[in-house]
Amino acid sequence: DAGITQSPRHKVTETGTPVTLRCHQTENHRYMYWYRQDPGHGLRLIHYSYGVKDTDKGEVSDGYSVSRSKTEDFLLTLESATSSQTSVYFCAIRGRLSYEQYFGPGTRLTVT
Amino acid sequence: AQSVTQLDSHVSVSEGTPVLLRCNYSSSYSPSLFWYVQHPNKGLQLLLKYTSAATLVKGINGFEAEFKKSETSFHLTKPSAHMSDAAEYFCVVTLNYGGSQGNLIFGKGTKLSVKP
Q1: Which residues of B touch A48 (CB under 8 A)?
Q2: Contacts of residue A33 in chain B, CB cutoff 8 Å?
Q3: Which is it for strands B87-94 and B32-38: parallel, antiparallel or unpaired?
Q4: What total number of domains does chain B contain?
Q5: Residue A31 to residue B32, Cβ atoms within 8 A
Q6: Do A98 and B96 touch (CB under 8 A)?
Q7: Test mutation, A32, A100, A108, chain B, max B CBs within 10 A
Q8: B103/A98 Cβ within 8 A
Q9: DSSP chain A
Q10: Is residue B68's pLDDT more than 90?
């Protein structure tokens, strides 16, 4: 357990509404990540952060934005949710000594 | 460019028999490699990692993997499967050069079924 929580754990929303997912860590890690998991695709990186206010895009960033105003919180926002964004979203932090990452429990998002 | 290929999308074994999950990688740099496991409706757990030390890496729950540079492979093995090993397994490579930020690239996963 790397002290990572995600909220909410489950959410159902309608197409066109904004959605914000929160990732919270308690161990002061510098790097944080957001992934989405879809059947047959493994995990794909959406955005990542390498410090407060320092973020960058990943492989599938279109339609998503992120913010990190505090070390412990990394927010993922869907400005206008679409059905293609129905997925399971995972947050992760990177270990201090090497590149392994530790994952949160996930958020299951359904866009109807 | 870095990439990782898991050669089987689904593997089925009987309890007590060996497990082999195959992974090949492509990397222009010395890679760091990982195996993660995901049980149904759970998050991902790190099983083991290779970071340029010993080529035979031991992980949790009796799993191990061998880094073979000549074959660009990092196959995951276990001598004797247990029912609790039924899960999805992901082979992962990292971009391992300055400026890469160490981002991970995931394979598409292998679902392991264990029959009684």
Answers
A1: 101, 103
A2: 103
A3: antiparallel
A4: 1
A5: no
A6: no
A7: A100
A8: no
A9: --SEEEE-SEEEE-TT--EEEEEEESS--S-EEEEEEETTTEEEEEEEEEETTEEEE-TT-TTEEEEEEETTEEEEEESS--GGG-EEEEEEEE-SSSS-EEE---EEEEE-
A10: yes
Structural domain including B87 reads 3-115
**Looking at residue B99, what is its pLDDT?**
61
CATH architecture entry for A4-111:
Sandwich (2.60)
Which residue from B49, B103, B108 is facing A48, i.e. has the nearest CB? B103
Per-residue pLDDT of chain A (112 residues; tens, 9 = 90+): 568 999 999 999 999 999 999 999 998 999 999 999 998 888 999 999 999 999 999 999 999 999 999 999 999 999 999 999 999 999 999 988 778 899 999 999 999 9
Domain layout of chain A by residue ranges = 4-111
Give B34's contacts in chain A (Cβ within 8 Å): 100
Residue B105's domain is classified under what CATH number?
Answer: 2.60.40.10
Chain A residues whose CB is inside 8 A of the B46 CB are: 100-102
Q: What pLDDT is attached to residue B94? A: 86
First to last CA, chain A: 33
As a whole number, mean pLDDT of residues B69-73 equals: 92
Q: What is the rounded CA–CA span in Å between residue A16 and residue B34?
A: 38
